[in-house]
Amino acid sequence: MFQGASSLSLDAKGRLSVPTRHRDVLSANAAGQLTITKHPHGCLMVFPRPAWEEFRDKIAALPMSAQWWKRIFLGNAMDVEVDGTGRVLISPELRVAAGIEKDAVLLGMGSYFELWDKATYEAQEAQAMQGEMPDVLKDFSF
Q: What pLDDT does residue 40 have?
């Protein structure tokens, strides 16, 4: 299970360094193979390959009425590998889709990661914190 936030910077070629705390797990569980695709909230989803395959199968099984969501998730998916120095190349198309130019935030979300443009994430998080807590969390015990 991946959790926690990491502030990262993409290099001039669009690569980011995977935080050390996640590299070993990704190496052991996915042989360093990842799949990156769009998320409907404007960030990118970064899956270890086995988790991606489960997600991909669920999306592929959706009915025809969800065809656009299949296109968004499956049609934009790109397979990548963690290189020998622990970096991953984020394609120009996906960087543009998420508005990521340099500064980014990588969030562990359980079985996958979200990759956000840092300013966008901070603005959306602040907005969420100002809003009302969703009903599903109102009775949750902290």
A: 94
Return the H-helix or E-strand segment holding 47: strand 44-48
> Contact, 98 vs 46, CB < 8 A?
no
Distances (CA, A) of 1 to 48, 50, 77, 114, 125: 11, 13, 21, 13, 22
The amino acid occupying position 133 is M
What's the DSSP call for residue 1? Answer: -
Number of domains in the chain: 1
Question: Is residue 47 predicted with pLDDT exceeding 80?
Answer: yes
Encode pLDDT of 71-130 as tens digits. 999 999 999 999 999 999 999 999 999 999 999 999 999 999 999 999 999 999 999 999
9, 16 Cβ separation under 8 angstroms: yes
CATH code of the domain containing 132: 3.40.1550.20
Give the containing element (helix H, strand E) for 13: none
DSSP letter for 102, please.
Answer: S
Q: At what angle do helices 49-60 and 20-30 cross, to 10 degrees?
A: 70
Find the domain containing 115 and state its range: 2-138
